[in-house]
Amino acid sequence: MRIVRFLSGGTEHYGRQLDDQTAAEIEGGLLGQRRETGRRLRIDKLLAPIVPTDILCIGLNYREHAAESGSAIPENPMLFIKSSNALNNPFDPIPVPRRSSQVDYEAELAVVIGKTAKHVSRRDALAYVLGYTCANDVSARDWQREKRLGGGQFARGKSFDGFCPLGPCIVTADEIPEPNKLRLRTLLNGQVMQDHTTADMIFDVPALIESLSSTMTLRAGAVILTGTPQGVGFARNPPVWMKDGDVVVVEVEKIGRLENPVRREV
Q1: Which of 2, 158, 178, 196 is most deeply buried (CB count within 10 A of its CB)?
Q2: Would you state the torsion angle of the CA atoms of residues 209, 47, 141, 107, taken in this order, to the nearest 10 degrees?
């Protein structure tokens, strides 16, 4: 099932996506007992398919991305957290902040947790997954990396307004039994910048759920951004930063296309 959150007639709904313009209305939300009402609704505007309880992110989780970053392969998943103000909808602008000139893209597979998970084994991990969506872990590299701005920890450079587009839908886990066999790409103004596969993850999806749930409760509705492959802007020579007027697209196989314009913050 492809689940969307959307506006129709000025009201927010969940629905099973039928095509680009319509959805079969679902009541009960994402995390409860869902059922279709029988109403077919027009999609006036797509929203991020979930408002996450937490946005949990994994750094340096692709071997080739670690290499291009000049970083050692981590021994354990590297967790950082994006704040809720970073959430963004498909097709809504990603702001280039007044206080950053180094805004970068990161295509990621996002895992949506469907039920509370604590001390979950690798064997059982995927049973806790509601589904998957596309994410763009937008990053202000100057604020992430420069000590004078408080760099050295990721949260601030990753948590500017609008820095976490999600969408366009959640594809339920039954349709993606092997999340580590998916192709993902970033296109910037139509040019392919990232093109790789989730098979290159250092810690696959079950390993991430096992590790994270060993030290924290993964609440239903949490979203895990599982890392990005090589090809990010800061690692290019010269670096490529997103700028006003750009269009950035994240594609994940079996899920779809997450598109956002880029606009200078006013």
Answers
A1: 158
A2: 60
